[in-house]
Design brief:
The protein is mostly helical. The chain is built from one helix and no strands. The two termini are 30 Å apart.
């Protein structure tokens, strides 16, 4: 039973990590393309859900 719970928790944690990284990359890409700001000028890109 504990193994199943650990697998589910690992899956949820992995999905949250993946979603945060994808969102951060999408935001950086948007800022670079739509706002014409070079990646070197982006100071911070912290993601929150």
């Amino acid at each position: 039973m504990r193994i199943i719970v650990l697998i589910i928790e690992g899956g949820i944690s992995g999905y949250i990590f993946y979603a945060k990284n994808k969102l951060e990359n999408d935001v950086i890409e948007h800022v670079m393309t739509e706002k014409n700001i070079p990646k070197e000028n982006i100071v911070s890109s912290e993601v929150f859900l």
